[in-house]
Design a protein that fits this description.
The chain is built from 21 helices and no strands. It is mainly α. The protein has one domain. The radius of gyration is 24 Å and the shape is globular. About 1% of the residues have low confidence.
Length: 396
């Protein structure tokens, strides 16, 4: 009987110890909330097919990052020596974004910008969303936060870049101006990139008339190979001489494009724009998602950053559309721009351009806006990097 009791006590003690180390015993409400967020990301990416290349790695990373550990025993993303530690190092130090820009440059065809330079102005106008977010973050009173500490100018600059809906640029700037807010800023930027097909159409319908939606734009002129080769060289020199702080992003973007267009480095361009970019997308998404531990991520500041991002994204979309309407006042009949491509001033490449195309065809099946919309989108990719460089130069 005594032996039987001792065995039961032994089993009870070991079972209790085992259970104390399980995630069920150490999970918090925050962990379950973040796991639900991760599942939502996976649902949107898989079932709705909205930016699955981004949302699936991020969503699964959120699940990984919110598996609870017994305090003092966690080998998580911030523990030196773990695999995620090395992956997070590339994110925290801003190593991944320039490499992503190299891949983007190798994929982007700048022909539409070269043939119709005025489309660049739309991409520039949409950057107002960045400055709207910056000013809003600065204007928030300190008393909003439980800690009593508001956003500094550097924090506001990093938050503002969400208005470009450019994930790599957001990571790059946040890693230098506000590392402690980088996860919230990056997740917010990528979330709004994925939600472009949901958020932008209502704004586009609200700000355009039926007559404007069916404007047909003349085909772009043919661009010579010489022009394509010269463009990245001139683009690099012009942008980076004005904004040297943007060189890590702009230099890699234009280098990637030169690899694409020069005609003698096809293998390098294919690698940069294909396998390398795919690998980096996986690493960024998974690492970013795994960095969202509830105790670090689920804070009042993170929620406010998401709110500011929504405002910035809305302002950027609206500004692009309204700027096209303003331009049309000065353009002759036959050369007017369809305002539906104004949304593409947000550098969510290529989804914002696809939304322009889908909206245009909804009102006129024969209207093809995709190539025209790519102009503001690729211009905005350059513009957001330039603005990031300006922010870094003034606030870094």
């Amino acid at each position: 009987m005594i032996e039987h009791t001792n065995i039961l006590d032994f089993l009870h003690q070991n079972l209790t110890t085992f259970l104390a180390f399980t995630g069920f015993a150490n999970a918090t409400i925050g962990n379950y909330i973040m796991i639900c967020v991760g599942l939502i990301f996976l649902y949107i990416g898989v079932a709705k097919k909205l930016e699955p290349m981004l949302l699936v790695p991020i969503g699964f990373g959120i699940l990984i990052g919110n598996i609870p550990f017994l305090p003092g025993t966690q080998v998580g993303i911030y523990e030196e020596g773990s695999l995620l530690y090395f992956l997070h190092f590339g994110l925290l130090k801003g190593i991944y974004p320039p490499m992503i820009f190299l891949g983007l440059g190798a994929m982007i065809d700048f022909s539409v910008v070269i043939s119709n330079p005025k489309l660049v102005l739309i991409g520039i106008a949409a950057q107002l969303g960045i400055f709207a977010a910056y000013m809003l973050a600065l204007a928030l009173p300190d008393s909003i936060f439980v800690s009593g500490i508001g956003f500094s100018a550097s924090d506001a600059g990093a938050i503002g870049i969400i208005g470009s809906a450019d994930g790599p640029t957001s990571i790059f700037l946040a890693s230098r101006l506000a590392p402690d807010l980088m996860n919230a800023i990056a997740i917010s930027a990528y979330s709004y990139m994925a939600l472009v097909p949901v958020i932008q159409p209502p704004i586009m319908r609200l700000l355009t008339s039926g007559k404007e939606r069916v404007i047909k734009m003349p085909p772009a002129r043919a661009v010579s190979q010489t022009e394509k080769i010269i463009f990245p060289i001139v683009g690099l020199l012009l942008t980076c001489f004005f904004v040297p702080a943007g060189l890590p992003l702009l230099g890699m973007l234009f280098f990637g494009n030169f690899l694409r267009e020069c005609g003698v480095t096809k293998r390098l361009a294919t690698t940069a724009g294909g396998p390398m970019t795919d690998i980096l997308t996986i690493l960024i998404g998974l690492t970013m998602g795994a960095s969202t531990q509830a105790d670090r991520f689920l804070t009042e500041k993170s929620i406010i950053i998401f709110g500011i991002g929504a405002v910035a994204f809305t302002v950027a979309t609206a500004t692009g559309i309204l700027f096209v309407k303003l331009m049309n006042l000065f353009l002759k009949e036959g050369n007017k721009i369809n305002p539906l491509i104004g949304n593409a001033g947000v550098s969510a490449l290529p989804d914002s351009a696809r939304v322009s195309q889908e909206m245009g065809q909804r009102y006129d099946k024969s209207n093809h806006l995709l190539m025209h919309a790519m102009g503001p989108t690729v211009a905005s990719t350059i513009g957001s990097a330039v603005v990031a460089g300006i922010m870094l130069g003034f606030l870094g």
